[in-house]
Amino acid sequence: MISWQSITYGMIKQLRHLERIQTQILDGAVIDYGNLFSMAGVYEVQIEKEYRMMKNRRSILILAATGVLLGGLGCNLATLIGGSGSSGTGEGVETAAAATVEAFNTRAVFETLVAPFTLTPQQPTSSGQFPAATITSVPITATPIPPTPTASQIAVPCNRADFIKDVTIPDGTIFYPEERFTKTWRLQNSGSCTWTPDYTIVFSDGHAMSSLALVTLDETVTPGGNVDISIDLTAPDDPGDHAGEWKLQSNDGVLFGLGSAGEKSFWAKIDVKERPKLDANRPGDFALNYKSARWESSTGVVTCPSLAEDFKNGAVFHSDAPKLEGGYQDDEPAIVLIPSDGSGGMIKGRYPPIRVTVGNDFHALVGCMDNSPDCDVTFELSYRVDGGAETSLGTWQEKSEGNYTDILLDLNALDGKDVEFILTVLNNGSSKDDRVFWLSPQIK
Question: Which residues are CB-neighbours of 230 under 8 A, at least 6 positions away?
Fold first, then answer.
């Protein structure tokens, strides 16, 4: 097999032969153009044959340059022949000279392309044969490009957090004005430093929603560990979308949060709505209109409906099929309540005013819910007229003892008045197991 080095040497040898012919043209020598074109044709056939044997990109590049040079020479020869019938004097010589300059320019392109390869000239042997040329590859150097830093090479900040999820109160949760709720986030310590119990959660921006200025973490969280952090909030009075932002603060006072650099806040976003009005057709159905009431406990306004049973702050729910004490399941709707804990713990719902007429009665069934063995509460019905003082219409104590109380009250004394009715449950000292119901409370 013929090596690409020997082929390249042969090509260069042929090109030098062609250059000598161009020199003769410039010197005014008489050229046998027929022989010259025949020779060029032989070179072309030989180069084409050698091209097929090339499998190397660099060889193809050299062949391309050779083709350019031969093309330039062909043009020059054509110009010489077509421009003068003389042997190279006068105008024909000038044309030949100009064409030769163009050919040398073409040669310069070729030499640039083959520059990365150094050809070591060889002398012919005694037999007249040239030995294979020695071609040394000249390495091409390039400015090194620094590698892109990987995640492991980027410095991890001392204090940084990643958001895992909203444990409570997802974005857009609906509240009524002044309702209290507890927002809980699950965060991961994605920094390099341990969070200590004296780290704090601090308000950063937006609406504080009556939160404390700072809340201590009260936990140790090592790098990579998760923690649930909670703050107590209160919905603003004004209806609309409200958002508050918080960050963490280290024991040396450095604020930090989420993001690659730990500079972003985590937030609570809620939608405050006006409480619905009483149903126009059934304004005296308290279970149907339970969302129209403002529910509050000894700790503040209670979310309605509540998100979970809360024996500390109180809770309110609606049930279409409550399971009463002893396991009996009723098919009438009920308001299920849990009073707040501690001394004076209670929960009450204040309804918008209702016009009372002659013959109206208040009726309800009250008691403890099933599976509430330590339930011990006092029910109370009271009212208020024109923003005056509250007046009690009656109280009823209930324990988990298998009995219910059926309430029926005559309201004729309130005829013609717009009355705010208030349903109350007192905890009798503790809210343990105090799950109770007002079954189908209504004015008829």
Answer: 167, 168, 182, 183, 184, 185, 215
Amino acid identity, residue 171?
D
The 3-state DSSP class for residue 313 equals coil
Paired with 174 in beta bridges are 271
Q: What share of the chain is helix, strand, coil (3-state, %, to 5)?
A: 25, 35, 45
| Integer Cα distance of 307 and 239 in angstroms | 20
pLDDT tens-digit series, residues 18-57: 556 555 655 555 555 455 445 545 554 455 555 455 444 4
Yes or no: say if 421 and 381 are a contact pair by the CB < 8 Å rule: yes
> CB-hemisphere CA count at 13 Å for 117?
18
Q: Which residue has the tokens 């410095």?
A: 155
Q: What are the chain's domains?
A: 4-137 (1.20.1440), 161-272 (2.60.40.10), 290-443 (2.60.120.200)
**57-83 vs 33-53: helix axis angle to the nearest 10?**
170
Within 10 Å of residue 406's Cβ, how many Cβ atoms?
A: 11
State if pTM tops 0.70: no
On the question of a cis peptide bond just before residue 276, with omega within 30 degrees of 0, the verdict is: no
Helix (H) or strand (E) holding 102: helix 91-113
Contact yes or no for 177/235 (Cβ under 8 A): yes
Contact 312, 297 (CB under 8 A): no
What pairing do the DSSP bridges indicate for beta strands 240-249 and 255-256? antiparallel
Residue 313's nearest CA partner among 296, 335, 290 is: 296
Query: Do residues 158 and 141 lie in contact, with contact meaning Cβ atoms separated by under 8 Å?
Result: no
Are the C-beta atoms of 410 and 361 separated by less than 8 Å?
A: yes
Note the pLDDT tens digit of each residue in 164-219: 999 999 999 999 999 999 999 999 999 999 999 999 999 999 999 999 888 999 99
Contact present, 272 and 176 (Cβ < 8 Å): yes
Amino acid, res. 130: F
